[in-house]
Amino acid sequence: MDSSLVKDNPLLLPLNAERTVYDGFVTVQERDFRLRILLPPDRQLKRAKLQCCWLLKHLLHGYEHIVKQRLQQSADLVTFLLELKTVLEVGLKSRPECSSIPPPQYYSQLIAEMETLGWNKLLFIDTELRTLRLKAEDSSGRQHILTIKLKSKHPAEAPECSADLPLPLATTWTPQSTLQQLHDQFLVVLESLTEFWDVLEEVDGNTWILEPEKPSRSDTMRRIAIGNNVSIKVEVDPRHPKMLPECCLLGAEHVVTPLRNKLNANMHLWNPDSSVLRNLRDVLEIEFPSPATHEKSDFSTECGICYSYRLEAAIPDQVCNDPRCGQPFHQACLYEWLRALPSSRQSFSTVFGECPYCSKPITVKMSAQTS
């Protein structure tokens, strides 16, 4: 019996001369499961005790009565282990998530790689040891997080990587690659974006940003307050952050038109060697309100219809063009208001009507959200 036991289960070995304690692994579908078998002095299976790893317990959940029955009825340990493997095969088929759990060498490989990379760079790892968050610092001292989702065949299979970046994270991976090399590639990407973040940090620190309310590292757009109900939306190119960004002036036409004319007339003065903020000042011939000189509440005017500033993600960006009014509205609010008026008319995607405040002509274009 012992020779058959060793032949069929080479990783399960006796720990004492009496052969009443066996410890090691049973192999099912090329997967190894930790198991310890404690036999009584007379080596009767019906009074044996089993101790196993959490994964084996998970697989046997619901089959405990079968295992107990086989312990009672099996003629010897070899037969019992054969029947136990059959039960495990059924468990693996009924629980697909268990079949994707990596083999033991996966964990030893992961630990070895983290030892090389440094445990101080690990911010998080899930209970399955599949998802890692690694911290990284660029040359300007900014903190970044690299999220890595390892595959069960790591390192033979490329992991999924993501980070809060304005561009897709492109990495290279071979079966010989390591987490250290992946982290090094991430640092190179961060350095290539340093100038982009420098540009936006200068804008964020010296102007009032209306949108986004809490910019992330991936945000390329800033809506900058110019005055009451007047702002400019700039879209910075992460690859060429100091070039003239895409600009869109927002506000009442009588205020926006002169600024738009200046932008068009002075566009040729844009100097890529100067900062984006300084260039915007020179081209528009204005000084932006800053946290040092103004309060944000000066520009956070509530919608004249719903009386709130933020409606989900939207802020009031539709402004009455009459200089004596200038009341802002949310696009969705104004659209619903005008649509309800019998006197309003629609031409293609534009609704024409009267301002809810001053009754002067006002228009609003339908967007995907309001249509």
Question: What does this 3D model show about the protein?
Answer:
The chain has four domains: 2-99; 104-191, Ubiquitin Conjugating Enzyme; 195-297, RWD domain-like (Ubiquitin Conjugating Enzyme, Roll); 302-365, 2-Layer Sandwich (Herpes Virus-1), CATH 3.30.40.10. 32% of the residues lie in helices and 22% in strands. It has eleven helices and 17 strands. The strands form five sheets. The protein has a four-stranded antiparallel β-sheet with strand order 1-2-3-4. A four-stranded antiparallel β-sheet has the order 5-6-7-8. Strands 9-10-11-12 form a four-stranded antiparallel β-sheet. A hairpin with a 6-residue loop joins strand 1 and strand 2 (21-28). Helix 3 (64-73) packs antiparallel against helix 4. The chain is elongated and about 100 Å long. The model has no long low-confidence stretch (mean pLDDT 87).
Bin the strand percentage.
15-25%
Poorly predicted runs of 5 or more residues: none
CATH top level of the largest domain is Alpha Beta
Overall geometric form:
elongated
Mean pLDDT: 87
Number-wise, the strands total 17
Q: In which range does the helix fraction lie? A: 25-40%
Helix tally equals 11
Total tally of structural domains: 4
Stated plainly, the CATH topology of the largest domain is called Ubiquitin Conjugating Enzyme
| Largest sheet composition | 4 strands, antiparallel
The H-and-E topology, N to C, reads as: HEEEEHHHHHEEEEHHEEEEHHEEHEEE
| CATH homologous superfamily label of the largest domain | RWD domain-like
Adjacency order of strands in the biggest sheet: 1-2-3-4
Measured between the Cα atoms of the first and last residue, the distance is 78 Å
The CATH architecture of the largest domain: Roll
- Summing up helix and strand content along with how strands pair, one would put the structural category as alpha+beta
Radius of gyration: 34 Å
